[in-house]
Amino acid sequence: MEWSERMNTAIGYIEDNLAGEIDFSEAADKACCSLFHFQRMFFAIIGVTPAEYTRQRRLTLAAKELITTNDKVIDVALKYGYDSPEAFTRAFRNVHGINPQAARASGVKLTAFPRISFYIELKGGNDMDYRIIEKPAFTAAGRVRHFSSDVEQNMVKIGEWCIEFMNSAERQELVGLVRNKPGAVTGGMMLGICIHEGQMEGYSYAITVELPEGTSPSPFEIVEIPAAIWAIFETTLDLLPQSWRQIFKEWFPSTGYEHTGGPELEVYLPGDMNPDSKCQLWVPVVKREKPDTEKKKH
């Protein structure tokens, strides 16, 4: 079964249980991947988390039932997982702009969030140079900031923060920790580290250096990077956003790997930081086991 088919099977499970309990671990099982990888791929391709998709779909169906049936508002609220009329009203108003009872008035405009379907188009002409390599654990030191789950908006915010940091006195202090020498594990002069948090509600981004053993991180924060098998992609600074999108929309679906849930690295190599400067993206991966139905075919 192709990756898109497995994801669509998971969507089918969610859709079949919108009026009941949904276990996203079971949805991930139907997609034949880990819960983290399922959430990460879902968000990267659709732009919302599985939980947000579920909420939007339930409120879409709730609105439909309010205008096509005589069911009480409280009954519709309970059917779609809301324990109180107040909670349902708040959620309904946030999506549709009106209260549930007002949805039954003639001529009102409601927001519809349709069922999605995964379809992956692997485009030619955009080859990604990569290698798979195992690396030991290491320690990084730097500054850490928390960001929301809005990836597109955060691309801008992180970029602005990086420019601000690179022009600050702290950059010189940070690089001074390693005496302007590249890291022994990554070969990078500086590292951007993305640390994911539970349920894809947000993540932290760290601007760091790879810290040599026995070196004090003071006055910076410590970020521990575990040993991992990495998929390492070659790119340039100006193509970073495009490269991240391509990794999740094309590379993962077409390979036998999935994300482990560990930190992701942007490795900035020695030299000037120009738009066409070479850099690397490190993604922690694990070889995906083939589903039993696929094993039987071979």
Describe the structure.
The protein has 298 residues and is an alpha+beta fold. It has 2 domains: 102 residues, Arc Repressor Mutant, subunit A; 158 residues, Regulatory factor, effector binding domain (Multidrug-efflux Transporter 1 Regulator Bmrr, Chain A), CATH 3.20.80.10. 38% of the residues lie in helices and 22% in strands. The chain is built from 10 helices and 9 strands. Strands 1, 2, 3, 4, 5, 6, 7, 8 and 9 form a 9-stranded antiparallel β-sheet that branches. α1 packs antiparallel against α2 and α2 packs across α3. The protein is elongated, with a radius of gyration of 23 Å. The model has no long low-confidence stretch (mean pLDDT 88).
CATH structural class of the largest domain: Alpha Beta
- The secondary-structure element order is HHHHHHEEHHEEEEHEEEH
User: Low-confidence parts lasting 5 or more residues at pLDDT below 50?
Assistant: none
> Treating each run of at least 4 consecutive H or I residues as one helix, how many helices?
10
How much helical structure, as a percent, in the residues?
Answer: 25-40%
Please state the average pLDDT score: 88
Overall geometry comes to elongated
Rg over CA atoms: 23 Å
Instruction: Report the CATH architecture of the largest domain.
Output: Alpha-Beta Barrel
Oligomer: single chain
Distance between the termini: 13 Å
Q: Could you say how many structural domains there are in total?
A: 2
CATH homologous superfamily title of the largest domain? Regulatory factor, effector binding domain
Number of strands: 9
Largest sheet composition: 9 strands, antiparallel
